[in-house]
Design brief:
Blueprint (H helix, E strand, L loop, with lengths): L24 H6 L3 H6 L1 E7 L6 H9 L1 E9 L2 H29 L3 H17 L11 H16 L28 H11 L3 E4 L13 E5 L22 H16 L3 E7 L10 H5 L4 E9 L9 E9 L2
Parallel strand pairs: 1-2, 1-4, 2-3, 4-5
Antiparallel strand pairs: 5-7, 6-7
Helix pairs in contact: 4-6, 4-7, 5-6
Length: 310
């Protein structure tokens, strides 16, 4: 059964996502393989670092995608995807309840309300069973989306203990429950394989008919820019090298592979880390606007890399 449903209107990410690829979709679509652009058909789509899923939702909204596999190592994120897939109506009900309570409060009481939700979320961290699906799963996912919509700058960040540590934000009228988009996301996810695992687990699903998009945690372009981590696992240069080896292995399978990452040349023209790592492949530099930085003069267009094997 085809995943693509032409009666579904466009679905977009249901979470705010630092480093999301929405602004790069035109650049990525421009470099899609010619046969995919011509037929508007993707036989097998694989995205092992799904994150907010901007490109995923775009492709499944506007292309005929026969099969799809998405995964992420962050269990809270994957729980949210699975809840929307399996019981979006209950999630919408929970979010509407939280939205109704939150919006009638003043800022001070909103902060208290947010911190109370965050405390409950972190308190249940060790006891929560991610292997089951029940009302607690729906409640936890609703807390995740609520904090993402009302927390500081929409960050989705955890400390070394695995606790959500984003402070409350200040928004006049945040849209906590976008029921229309959540419903569209639900329709798109109906037949998608959603996995909580390392990107390496996706390798067995990849073949010569696959289009693979890799959007790993970016290599920091400066010593002060690595503050948006949403997992307790570090993705250092050794991990980037392992990912490049994976890139080569799935290329040898005949899959079309696209990878995005930061451009070290933004800070150091002599830093050819990725140029050397992917010297056998096509590397494009594209402009992207960085929305969060500790220094105001560093906010603005910077180069990002799009690397492909064709």
């Amino acid at each position: 059964m085809d995943l693509f449903n032409k009666t579904v209107t466009e679905a977009v990410p249901f979470m705010k996502w630092v480093g999301g690829k929405r602004q790069l979709i035109p650049e990525i679509e421009n470099i899609l393989p010619s046969n995919i652009k011509k037929t508007r058909t993707i036989n097998s789509y694989i995205e092992p670092f799904i994150g907010g899923g901007a490109l995923f939702f775009y492709l499944l909204s506007y292309y005929d995608v026969k099969e799809a596999y998405i995964s992420d190592i962050n269990k809270e994120l994957i729980l949210a995807y699975n809840v929307i897939k399996r019981d979006h109506s209950s999630l919408i009900d929970n979010l509407k309840g939280l939205e109704s309570e939150y919006l009638k409060l003043n800022q001070e009481k909103r902060n208290d309300f947010y911190l109370d939700i965050r405390s409950k979320f972190n308190k249940d961290l060790e006891s929560f069973d991610f292997s089951t699906f029940d009302e607690e799963s729906i409640q936890r996912a609703s807390y995740t989306l609520f904090m993402n919509r009302t927390g500081f700058n929409g960050l989705f960040r955890f400390n070394k203990k695995g606790e959500f540590n984003v402070p409350p934000g200040k928004y006049k009228n945040p849209k906590i429950c976008d029921d229309e988009n959540i419903t569209n996301v639900h329709h798109i996810l109906k037949n998608v394989n959603i996995v909580n695992d390392s990107y390496l687990a996706s390798e067995d699903f990849i073949n010569e008919k696959s289009l693979v998009y890799l959007d790993p945690p970016y290599r920091p372009i400066s010593k002060t820019s690595s503050f948006t981590s949403y997992s307790t696992d570090e993705f250092n240069d050794d991990e980037q090298i392992k990912l490049a080896e994976y890139f080569k292995r799935i290329s040898d399978k005949g899959a079309y592979v696209i990878l995005s990452n930061s451009d070290p040349h933004n800070e150091d023209e002599m830093d050819d880390f990725f140029d050397d790592l992917y010297k056998d492949f096509t590397i494009d530099r594209v402009l992207a606007k960085r929305s969060i930085n500790s220094r105001g003069d560093k906010r603005g267009p910077v180069n990002e890399l799009l690397i492909r094997n064709y």
